[in-house]
Amino acid sequence: MPEKVKTVLITQQDPGAEKNPYTDLAKKFKLKIDYRPFIHVAGIESLEFRQQRVDILEHSAVIFTSRNAVDHYFRLAKEMRLAIPETMKYFCMSEAIAYYLQKYIQFRKRKIFFGHSTFNELMEPIKKHKTERFLLPCSDILKPSIPESLDKEKIQYNKAIMYRTVCSDLSDLADVKYDMLVFFSPSDIESLFKNFPDFKQNNTRIAVFGTTTAKAVEDAKLRIDVMAPTPKAPSMSMAIEQYIQDNK
Hints:
The structure is a single chain. The strands form 2 sheets. The protein has a 6-stranded mixed sheet with strand order 3-8-7-4-5-6. A 5-stranded parallel sheet has the order 2-1-9-10-11, sandwiched between helices. By secondary structure, it is α/β, with parallel strands linked by helices. Helix 3 (67-79) links the parallel strand 4 and strand 5 (89-92). It has 2 domains: 7-38 and 168-246, Rossmann fold, CATH 3.40.50.10090; 42-165, 3-Layer(aba) Sandwich (Rossmann fold). It is built from 9 helices and 11 strands. Helices cover 32% and strands 22% of the residues. The radius of gyration is 21 Å and the shape is elongated.
């Protein structure tokens, strides 16, 4: 029987807030919880972007699915000395992303539409503006459901890869051992083996969020000890808490 979980590595950025579900977990079970992103976003250069033959100014509307998309859209526009017209319409997957636009534009003077949190919700205002020519700034890893939704409604759009998800350098963790590793994307697993090709799970517990992450873990012949979301544990912190309580 493996020892109790005392140390946990969350493969994401430290949320920073004093009170979050993981700090509560740490206090409740006296855990040492560290944060370290296994992947990060890197913008592509304007020269490489031009090779895609996508003209930003040929579009009358932009679809933003993340803050990264916002940052790299305006970064490339600036690098290429493009003046984004005030008539540009912005369609954002969430209200938070919509308000993030204030970093780059005068919010009140622009036409901005947003969903609550899912792309299906955003499709409603997009369908009402079918005559627009949309630009979809994205990374090299894009959920297939997004272009599928646009294609289904015969939306006129161009995909523009503006940034990439790349593996972080984790060499400083080579001699550090954790009782539990928590993964949130298939790219996290890719980064694990890129940094540590000889990784052996042994007694290390692995927690995964989402079915695509779970598949990547299984494909890597690793054992899943904690799975989220589930009906009993809709969040990762709840799933970890259940596991620790069940294995006291």
